[in-house]
Amino acid sequence: xxxxxxxxxxxxxxxxxxxxxxxxxxxxxxxxxxxxxxxxxxxxxxxxxxxxxxxxxxxxxxxxxxxxxxxxxxxxxxxxxxxxxxxxxxxxxxxxxxxxxxxxxxxxxxxxxxxxxxxxxxxxxxxxxxxxxxxxxxxxxxxxxxxxxxxxxxxxxxxxxxxxxxxxxxxxxxxxxxxxxxxxxxxxxxxxxxxxxxxxxxxxxxxxxxxxxxx
Length: 215
Prior knowledge:
Blueprint: E1 2-7, E2 31-38, E3 76-77, E4 86-90, E5 94-98, E6 105-106, E7 140-149, E8 155-165, E9 173-176, E10 198-201, E11 206-214
Antiparallel strand pairs: 1-2, 3-6, 4-5, 7-8, 8-11, 9-10
């Protein structure tokens, strides 16, 4: 509250301040006979403790899922987390292969974000819980040497060769998208678009034909 002698009372309402925001409001005080009073009031922005969303003017970026001690949280597991290959119709890329069932992992509960040393603190998923794609790769080469005459008693060898990499053109997945988006409410399955999808593969079959002369 501010008072100024010789000015009329002026009240401005409906001004909302977001967390971390600086707002400048210029007021013109009409000349009056008594006092001028400026009142600034507001409610504390409410944070939703049951999920990752917030109300009022606080954004989700202002809460996040950081633990505050140098590490992030882990998901919870509500079923057997194992390799379960499938296909999903991604809205952007169409049919995409998947590597596991994303419904068996969930966002941790809000109570698990407390650094209290209790079991399940920051999520209960263990380390290296899922095995990623392996390699099934065959590289084969076929070559033939031809003896050729050279100057005098010297000889040379001409080699013709065919090299194949990933000879049988077997699909080999390289990267898997695994995690839980901050938009998923606490305790809910991590079924955001793209989770469990294959996002990269090793090179397909490559064939090289070459010749080499040794003399």
